[in-house]
Specification:
The complex is a heterodimer of chains A (538) and B (307).
Chain A: H1 2-25, E1 28-34, H2 48-57, E2 62-64, E3 70-72, E4 75-80, E5 86-91, H3 105-116, H4 134-138, E6 150-154, E7 157-161, H5 169-172, H6 183-189, E8 205-211, E9 215-220, E10 234-239, H7 243-251, E11 257-258, H8 266-272, E12 277-290, H9 301-309, H10 316-321, H11 353-366, E13 375-382, H12 385-398, E14 403-410, H13 412-421, E15 426-432, H14 439-442, E16 449-451, E17 454-456, H15 467-478, H16 482-498, E18 502-514, E19 518-519, E20 535-536
Parallel strand pairs in A: 1-10, 1-11, 13-14, 13-15
Antiparallel strand pairs in A: 2-3, 4-5, 5-7, 6-7, 8-9, 9-10, 11-18, 12-15, 12-18, 16-17, 19-20
Chain B: H1 2-29, H2 43-52, H3 59-71, H4 86-121, H5 126-140, H6 143-157, H7 175-201, H8 204-211, H9 216-245, H10 248-254, H11 260-269, H12 272-300
Helix pairs in contact in B: 1-12, 4-5, 4-7, 4-9, 4-12, 5-7, 6-7, 6-10, 7-9, 8-9, 9-12, 10-11, 11-12
Classes of the chains: A alpha+beta (538), B mainly alpha (307).
Subcellular location (chain A): Periplasm
Domain Solute-binding protein family (chain A): 70-448
InterPro entries (chain A): Peptide/Ni-bd, SBP_5, SBP_5_dom
């Protein structure tokens, strides 16, 4: 009796040891991803949370290297026509979906048609609008999907025709909107193809499990063309929006990488976990919009100047936020590709603060405001501690001008609804670049387009409008020479900033914490680090 | 009793319909919609999305479409979480929330009643003070703070329990979240129990029981506990629904897959389908719990007679 018990114990211990040894050989990355991904469908995705998962299981024509620069993905090479409008891609040999079906040029054609098909209702379809007829198909103007400028020459060759030469097009192809989808599966299952039990991929990882509210789990794809160099066997993309809780779980050793942390913990991290927190300039701008519609107070450029020049940007990153975001005086983030060397920097930025205030008071007096007739402005922001701290600080900076600021906060949906409707005076906004090109931020200040008698201002909430600016933007969009194009865009930036089209405040930074166990992580301005480049040591 | 239960169930139908209707329209009164994010969508895309979810139709039509689908057991799609429809989200999240809430409920009720009785019996002596202090901590510290504190102490410093996350079937991962949920619940129950027990112990029939020479233990077990339970029982229904609906902070901080999170984030995102779906679910839970409590009440208290 005792003997059998002992035998059982030994057997159990042996089995456990065996299990542990196999467990130890599988390398699992525990990645803190943020919120729940809204979808696993690349055509419906709209943010980082989806991007991290989707970009690991599907690969586009081009993909990102460790520093997030475009490199060959499913296409191993391409030719570009002399006028820059026709791209011919040559797909790799042997690429396949995880169910064994080959990835063909037809999958890409099908994917682009699906992206622009109005029935798909893809949020970010407009990112690929440089493609010929894309916009017309998406708006329903053209109903024949075959009119799209994406054609399969044969199974291995794909031809994409653009409206005009677009210098950032290859870069835009790394975006998930340009990913292929498995045509055979989507035709059979429709939108259900991304359900975990059906899903297939062509990327380095394959989605195996999705527990909403908790995690998505992917495993290494053995059939991926570069599988031999992929080090990590399994990835958990954890859902946790509470940043302080995420940091606690990192400290408990449960997470290997945090993709965000509370700004006020930066000092603590530097003191206690030196080298693990990465604060990196990120392609994005945090700014205030001023409503310049006719009849609005802020249509007066003097008041806009007074407000913008008296915001002390240097204290916001280091002191108010604590993560050292760099002050923004222009509209195009530093590090943006295809741009001029020396960034826009207004003269007033170097004038001592006291003099700026003095001049601003003068401008306000000219505009008819002063101590006897104070200007009352409403400043709207979406509810968030950091937005509030900045708003309070800026309200205090405007006080010497005799400006009385009424703070008003609302949840995100309500806030942006009000901005779009023009129902505000000063409003907080932010923009993260979709692709690394100056036009992506400069487009924000283009005059809206008239549609059915009403103006559609898009993301130009402040309704800034300058014909010369618009003309430069149009000219730049057809300029083939990158340097000349950069110059044109820089001229446009100067016009808008000299007219105080908005109040740039700071350039965003990305905030990651990376365990010393992880190697292969490279800071980059897009904050994209694909799992295939990472490795983990115990 | 059966007839009473049947009547109560019938009367719940109009209540449910009114609640769904009110929720449907009030939700639409709130400014903003499910597609108002940080970025303006091009009008064509927005129109496509709105058409996809029937949002381009007159509100009253949308309402009847919703009710029609609801009668067929279809809670509709989520407009924000694309991979799942509302029924699926509930099917994944609710069993988890229910497990967590019921575990917390059983533990908290047992501990709370026991603590309340002990405190009442030792009124104004040290066990009473210790228990009152423990209760106060649980009731006064808001659960998001409690969750963060327990996570830090037991997950990060001591490493006794996981600091968060969920591995299927692992009760180990539930210890901290259940503690956070159970503590204030146990606190409220023990206060109710203590108060009503003290009152019962002062009544004439307890005095009679004592004077006829019954031992203190028998007095408590046979005469005091049952009547003292009444206020506690009437709290159990709302208490359980509170545990079921109040799991938001716990789910957020420990990264758990329950539905409490959907209820709140969906409201902020204007994810109409999910808000309505979770509201309907909660409504049924609350209606059902109230019914059960009323029935238990009838059983406990001979003064309450239902025909």
């Amino acid at each position: 009796m005792k003997f059998t018990t002992a035998l059982k114990a030994v057997a159990t211990a042996g089995a456990m040891a065996l299990m542990m040894s196999t467990a130890a050989s599988a390398v699992t990355l525990q990645l803190h991803n943020g919120g729940d991904p809204g979808t696993l469908d690349p055509h419906k995705a709209s943010g980082d949370w989806e991007n991290r998962v989707i970009g690991d299981y599907i690969e586009g024509l081009l993909t990102e290297n460790p520093s997030a620069e475009a490199i060959p993905g499913q296409a191993e090479s391409w030719d570009i026509s002399e006028d820059g409008t026709v791209y011919t891609f040559h797909l790799r040999d042997g690429i396949q979906w995880s169910d064994g079906t080959p990835v063909t040029a037809g999958d890409f054609v099908f994917a682009f048609q699906r992206l622009f098909n109005p029935a798909t209702a893809a949020d970010y379809a407009y990112l690929q609008f440089p493609i010929k007829n894309a916009e017309q198909i998406n708006s329903g103007e053209i109903t024949d999907l075959n009119e799209l400028g994406v054609k399969a020459i044969d199974d291995k060759t794909l031809e994409i025709t653009l409206n005009a030469s677009t210098p950032f097009f290859l870069e835009a192809l790394t975006h998930y909107t340009a990913y292929p989808v498995p045509r055979h599966l989507v035709e059979e299952l429709g939108d259900d193809w991304t359900k975990v039990e059906n899903i297939v991929g062509n990327g380095p990882y394959l989605v195996k499990e999705w527990l909403p509210g908790s995690y998505v789990r992917s495993e290494k794809n053995p059939d991926y063309y570069d599988a031999e160099n992929v080090q990590i066997d399994e990835v958990y993309y954890h859902v946790l929006e509470d940043q302080a809780a995420a940091l606690n779980r990192y400290r408990a050793g449960e997470f290997d990488i945090l993709t965000d942390f509370p700004a006020d913990q930066y000092q603590w991290l530097q003191d206690n976990m030196p080298g693990q927190a990465h604060v990196t300039p990120f392609l994005g701008i945090y700014y205030y919009v001023m409503n310049q519609e006719e009849g609005q107070v802020l249509s007066d450029i003097r008041i806009r100047e007074a407000l913008s020049t008296t915001v002390v940007r240097d204290v916001i990153g280091p002191d108010i936020l604590g993560t050292g975001e760099l002050p923004a005086y222009g509209w195009v983030p530093p590090g943006t590709a295809n741009y001029v060397e020396n960034a826009y920097h207004p003269e007033w930025a170097d004038v001592p603060y006291e003099e700026r205030v003095e001049k601003a008071i003068g401008l306000m007096t000219e505009a008819g405001y002063g101590p006897d007739n104070p200007l009352t402005l409403q400043l709207r922001y979406n509810t968030n501690d950091n937005h509030q701290r900045i708003a309070v600080a800026i309200a205090a900076m405007w006080e010497p001008l005799g400006v009385k600021v009424e703070l008003f906060n609302a949840e995100t949906a309500v806030h942006y609804d009000a901005l779009r409707a023009g129902d505000f005076q000063v409003g907080r906004a932010g923009w993260l670049l979709d692709y690394n090109d100056p036009s992506n931020t400069l487009d924000l200040l283009k005059t809206g387009v008239s549609q059915d008698g009403t103006m559609n201002w898009g993301n130009n909430y402040g309704r800034y409008s300058n014909a010369e600016y618009d003309a430069l933007m149009t000219q730049a969009s057809t300029e083939l020479d990158l340097e000349a194009r950069g110059e044109l865009l820089a001229q446009a930036e100067k016009i808008a900033m000299d007219e105080f089209a908005a109040i740039p405040i700071y350039w965003y930074v990305s905030k990651d914490v990376v365990s010393p166990k992880i190697s292969g992580f490279e800071e980059n301005p897009k904050n994209i680090f694909r799992t295939r480049w990472l490795s983990k040591s115990e | 009793m059966l007839a009473y239960a049947f009547r109560r169930v019938l009367s719940a139908i109009p209540i449910a319909l009114i609640a769904v209707t009110a929720c449907f329209f009030i939700l639409r009164l709130a400014p903003g919609g499910p597609f108002d994010g940080e970025r303006a969508l091009p009008p064509t895309v927005l129109a496509n999305l709105r058409a996809h979810y029937n949002l381009d139709q007159p509100l009253i039509n949308q309402y009847f479409i919703y009710i029609w689908r609801l009668l067929h057991g279809d809670l509709g799609p989520s407009m924000v979480i694309d991979g799942f429809n509302v029924s699926q989200l509930i099917a994944i999240g609710f069993p988890f929330t229910l497990t967590m809430a019921l575990t917390a409920f059983v533990i908290a009720t047992a501990i709370g009643m026991l603590a309340g009785m002990v405190a009442a019996v030792y009124q104004n002596k040290w066990p009473d003070y210790v228990l009152v202090l423990a209760v106060m901590i649980g009731v006064l510290i808001p659960n998001f703070l409690m969750a963060a504190l327990l996570q830090l102490w037991f997950g990060v410093y001591l490493r006794w329990f996981p600091a968060g996350g969920w591995v299927n079937g692992s009760w180990w991962h539930l210890v901290l979240p259940v503690t956070v949920l159970a503590w204030p619940h146990a606190g409220r129950i023990s206060r109710l129990m203590r108060g009503s027990m003290i009152e019962v112990l002062g009544t004439n029939y307890v005095r009679t029981a004592r004077s006829k020479g019954l031992g203190e233990r028998l007095v408590l077990a046979r005469h005091a506990i049952k009547p003292a339970l009444l206020p506690v029982v009437s709290y159990l229904g709302p208490g359980l629904s509170y545990l079921l609906t109040g799991s938001l902070a716990v789910e957020q901080i420990f990264g758990l897959p329950g539905i409490g999170k959907y209820f709140v984030t969906a409201a902020l995102n204007r994810d109409y389908g999910v808000v309505l779906g979770t509201t309907i679910l909660y409504m049924f839970i609350i209606l059902a719990l109230n019914l059960i409590v009323d029935l238990v009440y009838a059983w406990l208290d001979p003064k309450v007679r239902y025909r």
